Amino acid sequence: MQQLDVFNQGLIHFLQASPTPAHAVEVMRRQLQEAGFQELQEDQDWSLEPGQGYLVIRGGKSIVAWRQGLQEPQETGVRMLGAHTDSPCLKVKPKAEIFRNGCLQLGVEVYGGALLHPWFDRDLSLAGQVHYLDAQGQIQEALFDAREPLAIIPSLAIHLNREANKGVEANPQKHLPVILGQLNVSQNPLFAFRQWLASCLEAEGRQVTEVVDYDLSFYDVQPPAYVGLNKEYLASARLDNLLSCYVGMEALIACDQTQDATSLLICNDHEEVGSASALGAEGPFLESVLRRLTSGNEASYQKLISRSLMISCDNAHALHPNFADRHDENHGPKINAGPVIKINANQRYATSSETSALFDAWCRQAQVPCQRFVVRTDMGCGSTIGPLTSTRLGVRVVDVGVPQWAMHSIRETVGSQDPWYLARALVAFIQAARV
To answer: How many domains in the chain?
Structure first.
């Protein structure tokens, strides 16, 4: 249990330090480098040594990290783990300032399939990437995190909307602009958001001539926390899917430097909006790295793909006690009952009978319970990076994930034992003699 709590404390720290995909990748970069992984650049030549760990970052928001095996990758295949760094959120628009009824607001755009109502009445801060001109007129990039509560989206009082508890639609354009403060008519009523950003960066010691652009989103400042009489649950923002990023990273770091096979982790951005980008799973990032592992030799690359397998890790829908009828009666995953194999006959998940059986065997080897999820036949099914990766590369994939409640809410819940269960199963996969 002490080992479990240490693992969860690391997860809590990772979640707290990663309000955006760019921050998550930066934290992963630091932790991997502390574990001896070397950072490579895509625009440079690579010289890879057996047993050494490497990482490469694209766009600041997607990362591939791997431990080079002692044998050639095309001979053993690659043990791949996949996850995504992004979560549904509210992104600041380019021309964001709104001045109305004495209030200063910022316009936002909904990123991904967010549950909107949980964003109301939360203490919100702001974080992301900022690109600016320095004193020499060069474009520079900065990671920005205000950390303190800056904004709120207040609900309308029930006295002014008696139908509120009957399910009222939240209009993103009208109801989601965040409130930053009040405007005093005796003062200059104008507020330049980019100038404010510049002043924040200057306070950090940067020379900023002009903020040119940004990728910023709001987030809830409430920290992750254990919940339950016996700390059965862990509640936090961005569990979908930073939890899988952390678990995959820890499994990769834990793998033996004397492994024959190469083990790899990819964490893509843009999964929540379809993955169709240079940083997403539908893009070429993973393929380009794998091809470089075989020095561009096509026959070696094809051998690598045929001998490889990916575990696509993305959280699953746990059985909700108040809405049990939303699950197939035989396929309702329970919290703290182990990782979930996700199956869909229409290939919304890439799991096959073979890859399901393999993952089940690795769970047994790690002495970890295992569950299976199939969506109700009369309901639609979500998807993951699994089918996209399988389609693009032709590699075998099993889709799995930790069961969770309130997926895509600003505050989600998982079991406090399940991340540790998943980590143990992933280590068993990486250390398996064959896949």
So the answer is: 2
Pairing mode, if any, of strands 316-317 and 403-405? parallel
For residue range 71-122, list pLDDT tens digits in order.
Answer: 999 999 999 999 999 999 999 999 999 988 889 999 999 999 999 999 999 9
Does residue 241 share a domain with residue 135?
Answer: no
Same domain, 368 and 406: yes
Which residues make Cβ contacts (< 8 Å) with residue 132, sequence separation at least 6?
Answer: 139, 140, 142, 197, 198, 201, 206, 208, 209, 210, 211, 212
pLDDT digits (tens, 9 = 90+) for 138-178: 999 999 999 999 999 999 999 998 888 887 789 999 999 99
DSSP 235-280: EES-HHHHHHHHHHHHHHHHS-TT-SSEEEEEEES-GGGTS-SSSS
Contact 52, 70 (CB under 8 A): no
β-pair partners for 105 = 98, 179
Q: Is 154 left (phi over 0), alpha (psi -120 to 50) or beta?
A: beta
Do residues 317 and 361 touch, judged by C-beta distance below 8 A?
A: no
Give the span between the Cα atoms of 403 and 420, in whole angstroms. 12
What Rg, from alpha-carbon coordinates, does the chain have? 23
Tally the residues of the chain. Answer: 435
Helices (H) and strands (E) in the chain, counts: 11, 20
Q: What is the token pair recorded at 315? A: 């959280």
Query: pTM higher than 0.90 for the full model?
Result: yes
In a domain, 229, yes or no: no
Report the interhelical angle of 298-306 vs 285-293 (nearest 10°).
Answer: 110
Q: Which domain range does residue 16 map to?
A: 2-87+237-431
Residue type for 46, please?
W
Instruction: Check whether 39 has a pLDDT greater than 90.
Output: yes
Question: Terminal CA-to-CA distance of the chain, rounded, Å?
Answer: 30
Structure tokens at 422: 């998943």
96 and 72 Cβ atoms separated by less than 8 Å? no
Rounded Cα gap, residues 267 and 83, in angstroms: 5
* E strand or H helix that includes residue 203: helix 193-203
pLDDT digits (tens, 9 = 90+) for 349-382: 999 999 999 999 999 999 999 999 999 999 888 8
